[in-house]
Amino acid sequence: MKKSALLFAFLLALSPIAHSQISDLEKSALLDLYKSTKGTTWNINWDLTKDVATWNGIIVENNTVTEINLSMNNLTGPIPATIGNLKSLRHLNLGFNKISGLIPTELATIESLVTIQLFMNQIEGQIPSAIGNLKNLKELVLFNNFITGSLPESIYDIATLEVLHVSSNKLTGAISPSIENLKHLKTLSLFDNAMNGTLPKQIGTLTNLTELSLANNSFKGEIPTEFNQLSKLETLLLFNNKFTGQISPSIQNLPKIKNLEFNNNPNDVEISSSAAHPITQITLIPQ
Asked: Are the beta carbons of 69 and 93 closer than 8 angstroms?
């Protein structure tokens, strides 16, 4: 009888109806997010009387919150600083909402984070200067906001980063030569900002890149010939900048290149039409 009781207790603990036991600190952080972003007006809100593990978009593993996915859910308002108390959070997706205010500096203290997706919101201010603390981060997706300032120097310390997508913001400044540290980067999208300076040749060392989108900025100078080392590159968008010189035929002839756009740069830019590999979209500047 005693063994049966123990077995029943064990099975109950494994049952999906068993309540998760997240800390009061973590639950409070979730409630702060709910209140700060007007949870009662969300498309799918939370029943605060039920277990946290049943709340829409929340994943709980081993009694700790590991994922928040509330994209396209009509969140309105700022992200509270207490989000930094979710120390086991790996994935944060609050994309396509009406989130305003700043990216909390406390977010950069959650070293477990693998993905941050805050795209298509109304976020202002700068990317936290300590973002480089996130040594496990693979994706930083912040496009279509009102983020200002330059890319923080510490961002180049995130050696695990695979996707850096910060297009359609108000970013300024140049790309640092330290970009060479991001050896795993597959997507670098800085499209539609106000960035400037010359392109560092070190971008050519990022041999895992498949997309390099730098269009609609104020970058200047020549396109580094080192770009011809980007053997996996499929998309290269450079239009609406201040580039001069000539794009090397070896860049046009990259084995995977499909989409190369370079129009609306100064008239002394030249681009060869003798690419060895077919390109689905190539825009030549007017003569």
From this structure: yes
Strand partners, 67: 59, 91
Cα–Cα distance measured from residue 265 to residue 222, given in angstroms and rounded to the nearest whole number: 11
pTM of the predicted structure, to 2 decimals: 0.88
Contact 246, 220 (CB under 8 A): no
pLDDT in tens, 163-200: 999 999 999 999 999 999 999 999 999 999 999 999 99
* CA distance to 13, 36, 47, 141, 254, per residue, from 98 (Å): 39, 12, 21, 16, 40
Element (DSSP H or E) covering residue 78: strand 76-78
Helix (H) or strand (E) holding 2: helix 2-14
User: Which residue(s) pair with 76 in the sheet?
Assistant: 98
Q: Which structure tokens are listed for 261?
A: 């756009």
Domains of the chain as residue ranges with CATH: 20-283 (3.80.10.10)
Which residue, among 225, 221, 236, has the nearest Cα to 201 in the 3D structure? 225
